[in-house]
Specification:
By secondary structure, the chain is an alpha/beta fold. The protein has 7 helices and 14 strands. The strands form 3 sheets. It has a 7-stranded mixed β-sheet. A 5-stranded mixed β-sheet has the order 8-9-10-11-13, with no helix packed on it. β1 and β2 form a beta hairpin. The radius of gyration is 16 Å and the shape is globular. The termini are far apart.
């Protein structure tokens, strides 16, 4: 399996590995790298992906310069290679929400993580990433997203998941494909937290949705997030 690299915004890179055996039409596992004075990785991939993801980073910056290791929630495809990256980059640190650190990451990470309050910003030097708690959206209690304020890129994790192996970037409708993926995997916690989180994120008016599974989106992000919220509201109230 090949890991492909695409720059989806200025200084923000998507690493995509397509796994054809997952689901009815295959599935992509994506990581995102922010090239800044303090480089940041969003998602590490599973442990077996560490050689490929670290090689992709090394084409942009030496892996040992990585400063921040981040992800949406505690799950193998999000943080499986976390400790491998901590070992490869001696100055790196995991940064996550207070709840995720308290219930899991303070114990799981080989170095103590930085705890982030809802809305807190890390200045990367040339980039500013804001941590936003999204508990139970799309699933785990400790779920969160990151919003890069300079470019307007929203790292939205499993929200807007799609099947297959689409292009790195698209402005085509993703709400329909995300609904199909939900029908296949039933991956989302169907509760009021999900549409509430999507409506809140829409208010950020992001320019790009950096999506963990599937294509990233450069269309009308505000409308797409609100439309996906409506899909889940309809599922909650059939």
């Amino acid at each position: 399996m090949q890991t492909r690299t695409n720059e989806i915004a200025d200084g923000i890179y998507r690493f995509a590995t397509f796994v054809p055996e997952v689901g009815p039409s295959g599935f992509t596992f994506n990581q995102f790298f922010v090239d800044a004075a303090e480089p940041l990785l969003f998602h590490t991939g599973m442990r077996w992906l560490f050689p490929q993801v670290s090689e992709a980073i090394a084409r942009i910056r030496p892996v040992e310069e990585l400063r921040w290791i981040t992800f949406g929630h505690v799950e193998a495809d999000e943080l499986g290679a976390m400790n491998s990256f901590l070992a490869a980059a001696p100055q790196s640190q995991v940064a996550h929400g207070e709840l995720g650190c308290a219930v899991s990451l303070d114990d799981m990470a080989d170095r103590l993580p930085r705890r982030l309050a809802d809305g807190e910003v890390i200045d990367l030097g040339g980039r500013r990433v804001q941590h936003l708690d999204t508990p139970h959206a799309p699933h785990n209690w400790e779920s969160r997203v990151l919003f890069e304020q300079t470019t307007g890129v929203l790292f939205c994790g499993d929200l807007m998941t799609q099947l297959g192996d689409g292009p790195a970037l698209t402005d085509a409708d993703l709400v329909g494909p995300a609904s199909v993926a939900e029908d296949v995997f039933h991956q989302t916690s169907l509760g009021p937290a999900v549409p509430a989180a999507l409506h809140r994120l829409a208010q950020l008016k992001p320019t790009t949705l950096a999506i963990m599974h599937g294509s990233s989106f450069t269309g009308d992000c505000e409308t797409a997030l609100n439309d996906l919220a409506t899909v889940y509201e309809d599922r909650l109230n059939p």
